[in-house]
Specification:
The protein is an alpha/beta fold. It is built from twelve helices and 20 strands. The strands form six sheets. The chain has a six-stranded mixed β-sheet, sandwiched between helices. Strands 16-17-14-18 form a four-stranded antiparallel β-sheet. The chain has a three-stranded mixed β-sheet with strand order 7-6-15.
């Protein structure tokens, strides 16, 4: 029976391990940390559920559906729309198929002329062009600046106008097709489900890799196949290639009195470091103990608590000075930055070693899962 070693217990590594195990391989997963899922993990602080960053799952992702892990997990749907704060006014925009109440604000001149909106619909139907998203939406400048960019910056965790149009089109496709959810009990439950039945050894740091050997802090491991599925920066170091540019983000979690913020929508806008904010426990009540609300805010740069609170006061139109900072998650390697002409399906092998991860595919949960599955399929095929 062939033996495979998977370096890294993130979603790419776990999905690769599951696929290989289904194909009759003996699989061993080596993980440096003491937990599963990479950055798709959950902590519990004083009765609050704290994911590692604002984490939603789109059950419509094709690679996620194939795993069937979400079938046994309770979840809460997010609204298929966003609240945009402009001055003292709050606009609600979103998919009108899910709620006709989005229509009036969608038609507002604040978000571009009718011709701009028609141009965007045409954009969705024409062949994808290999340019920046900003260049691709040149015919819809107000729509881009006032709706798409404020929302999508928080999805790609950088300035979306600089990202490959092919990447953004793919992500928009999945948003249109599915309804993102918060996982009851935290997103870490999905990682646990994906890891079910696997042999995983924690606390093992991989120091170097060869096509059939892995050297670690706990000695050497040999196998018929080796897969590197660590974070992109660590993987690049192990494989001897240039590391991809990575996006940085911080997510701030505040404990606030129940009822102070009542909206269930993601909210964007205003001046300051916050790219989006949401009262998580208004959507998923299990995220906060009784009488309290868990509110999250995401920034794309290092920020101060005072600057975050100042912007949140404007966004939520309430005093935030007494809000208690419960936790902050700094994520230096949030997502790979994919510029135009970037490979969306990169080589599966580097220097003779298999490699999986969302940096080798679409920067998303879909990309991570698909990359792991494709590597497993290729290993099986060539054996």
């Amino acid at each position: 029976m062939p033996h495979a070693l998977i370096c890294g217990a993130g979603w790419a590594g776990l999905n690769c391990a599951q696929a290989l195990q289904e194909r009759g391989f003996t699989v061993q997963v080596l993980e440096k940390s003491d937990r599963l899922g990479g950055r798709i993990t959950t902590d519990f602080v004083e009765g609050f559920t704290i994911d590692c960053g604002f984490q939603v799952v789109n059950p419509s992702y094709a690679a996620l559906r194939e795993t069937v892990i979400m079938e046994g997990i309770s979840s809460y749907k997010l609204a298929k729309g966003v609240e945009i704060v402009e001055g003292n006014r709050i606009f609600k925009v979103g998919d009108p198929r899910s709620d006709l109440r989005f229509v009036p604000d969608l038609l507002s001149g604040q978000f571009g002329s009718i011709s701009e909106k028609i141009a965007f619909l045409k954009y969705l139907r024409r062949a994808t062009e290999d340019k920046t998203f900003g260049e691709a939406l040149a015919d819809s400048p107000k729509l881009l600046a006032n709706i798409l960019k404020p929302f999508l910056d928080g999805v790609v965790l950088t300035d979306v106008t600089l990202i490959s149009n092919r990447v953004v089109r793919e992500l928009i496709h999945w948003f249109i097709k599915g309804n993102p959810v918060l996982v009851d009990g935290g997103v870490g439950r999905a990682s646990e489900a994906l890891a079910a039945g696997l042999d995983i050894e924690f606390g093992i740091e991989v120091q170097s890799v060869l096509p059939r050997k892995v050297i670690t802090s706990n000695g050497d491991f040999e196998a018929d196949e080796v897969v590197v599925a660590t974070d992109p920066v660590t993987a690049s170091q192990l494989l001897g290639v240039e590391a991809p540019k990575m996006n940085y983000s911080e997510t701030w979690y505040f404990d606030i009195p129940e009822g102070e913020v009542t909206s269930k929508f993601l909210r964007v806008g205003g001046q300051g470091p916050v790219v989006n904010t949401i009262a998580l426990s208004n959507v998923a009540p299990s995220f906060a103990p009784g009488g309290r609300t868990l509110l999250a805010a995401t920034t794309l740069t290092a920020a101060s608590e005072s600057s975050v609170k100042n912007q949140l006061a404007h966004l939520w139109q309430v005093a935030t000075v007494d809000w208690r900072l419960l936790a902050k998650r700094e994520i230096p390697y949030s997502l790979p930055f994919k510029a135009p002409r970037s490979e969306l399906a990169s080589d599966l092998k580097i220097n003779g070693v298999w490699c999986a991860g969302d940096w080798r595919n679409l920067p998303s949960q879909q990309g991570a899962l698909l990359s792991g599955k494709v590597v497993a399929n290729s290993i099986s095929f060539y054996r």
